[in-house]
Write the structure tokens for this entry.
Amino acid sequence: MNWDWQVFCKNTLDGEIMPRCFGSGGEITYLDWLLSAWGWTLSVSLLALLVALLFGSLMGILRTTPHRGLVFLGTAWTELFRNIPLLVQIFLWYHVLPALVPPLRGVPSFLLVVMGLGLFTSARISEQVRAGIQSLPRGQRMAGLALGFTLPQTYRYVLLPVAFRIIIPPLTSESMNIIKNSSVAFAVSISELTMFALQAQEETARGIEIYLAVTALYFISAFALNRLLHAIEVRVQIPGVIGGSR
Amino acid sequence: MIEIRNVSKWYGQFQVLTDCSTKIEKGEVVVVCGPSGSGKSTLIKCVNGLESFQQGEVIVNGISVGDAKTNLPKLRAHVGMVFQHFELFPHLTITENLEIGQVKVLGRSRDEARERGLKLLDRVGLRSQADKYPGQLSGGQQQRVAIARALAMDPICMLFDEPTSALDPEMINEVLDVMVELATEGMTMMVVTHEMGFARKVAHRVIFMDQGRIIEDAAKEDFFGTPRSERAQLFLSKILGH
Ligand SMILES: Nc1ncnc2c1ncn2[C@@H]1O[C@H](COP(=O)(O)OP(=O)(O)OP(=O)(O)O)[C@@H](O)[C@H]1O
Ligand SMILES: [Mg+2]
């Protein structure tokens, strides 16, 4: 087969090959577009990850408190967001919510996707945070309280530092999932990698090169995140604990 | 110092504690023993409100533990507790374990807390382990640190829930020695344990529990002399038998 990697140097308007592969003066090559799409993918993913960690941790913690109302809230949240398909949730955020809540109409679809993907993932993170806290010996909570810590202090100083260390591996794969799942953003016209692939291959008829490039960028993103989190995991290992260092 | 008045507790239909009453005066050492499942841990955890109870009253230093208005964290800050499984915080060094309560609960400065912590580490003979993590210490060492951690809060009394029963036999004495020293210095102590040697040496009274009831509550001499209940006698003969 014939590769034609020069396709990325083509101007998106007239298909001319640009000398330095990057467009200038308002002209855009497919390479420019690819990089900008990568930027959108990373932005959606990282912001959604932030939302997911925030809400997932909070809801996971609530589910381990001794207060029934809070446990119910956390459980209801988790079940709600994990039992509806992701794509449906994205459409709900994009089409249904703004119709029901008029102030949402002005919100850019980028933010709606971040919330949709973030809250979907928060349900999964909530599950992991809950499991992490519950895997700690029951006596740890008691020891914290017995020392005079309030319940929030017990979480802050005793339970969470250990629970989060334990769940770094599942959180890592969840973070990688977010990058992969961010491809649903194309469904609401965010110009991210998947959207780029669909459109660029149609325009250029070089689907193979386009898809290979997009695949590589997804892979690099997820893999870089994996390495980063692994480095953190190693750094915070507790000496003297199974799996710990030093 | 500690007064337990007619305390009863249920887990659903199951009654764990039935009408338990006793009193521990300042400076007294009281040993609580009884068969597994008799409610010893539950009772001692009622003293600092780690377990709630449905009936009765627990008064510690004049404060009612069961009262909804009581500031439990404040009360617990001055009631030391030592657990069967040590429960040091694994992500903190020994020094940090000793500091954190003093700093975050009592509001001491880090330097002050460190100094107090190191002094207590000295006292339990573990100064050289200050910068290690709990997972790097033996069980006996961890339990001595746990005692030091409780003492660092300047407790008005100490609660021990089977402090030696998770230890290898050769480590039991190093922990008991620390406890004996504490007792002879006049610390008010409520100790759940089956170490009758400890009870004989320093206890003022022995409480025997069975099926959630306090069956015997006697001066040490009377308890080891002629425990009145058959069950206590049977229990004693069993644990002293080996
Ligand atoms: N959370 C709980 N729910 C239901 N039952 C419980 C709970 N915790 C304890 N129990 C029951 O209450 C009874 C008393 O338990 P407790 O731990 O106080 O006994 P113990 O005297 O300390 O026993 P051991 O010597 O084994 O430590 C036991 O029968 C136990 O099964
Ligand atoms: Mg017990």
Q: What stands out?
A: Chain A touches chain B through 23 residues (CB under 8 Å).
